Fold:
Amino acid sequence: MARVILVYGSTTGNTEALAESVVEGFKKGGVNVTLKNVTEADVDELTGYDLIVLGCSTWGEGELQDDFIEFYDRMEGVSLAGKKSAVFGPGDSEMYPDSFCKAVDMLEEILAKCGARIILEGLKVDGDVESAMGNAEAWGLKIAKLL
Ligand SMILES: Cc1cc2nc3c(=O)[nH]c(=O)nc-3n(C[C@H](O)[C@H](O)[C@H](O)COP(=O)(O)O)c2cc1C
Structure:
């Protein structure tokens, strides 16, 4: 079975809640996921998985969620060649139209730089995350079916 890790960074709990729904989707697809807060994750452990899923909210004006910054910096130069990957995150297009879910784009870019292949378009959740739980689960299930 494919080894899957999901690493998320979350300040107010929204990305964490989405991460749990994504994991539910994987479970429905028969795939187990190692779920980790980025504060407990190490970049080096990514190489032990076939699929890397990253979840991160956007803060400031188009910045990564605080806890994710160090992890992102440490990804620079790491080889993830042959790995599959996908990224999700919440944001707010009404308040931050110019930097909506920028963290998702940033993480997709660094994953590609590391040699990983993005296997599904990033999930950008706009505004209220409660109403997006079904979408997050469906997104996870869709990826599980691609493995
Ligand atoms: C001070 C502040 C800055 C934010 N900046 C952005 C931003 O630049 N782009 C965006 O899409 N969302 C932005 N947001 C919205 C957050 O990404 C959103 O509230 C998200 O759900 C928080 O997720 P978390 O609880 O997992 O950290 C901002 C929110 C706050 C309070």
Remarks:
- The chain has one domain: 4-146.
- The two ends are 9 Å apart (CA to CA).
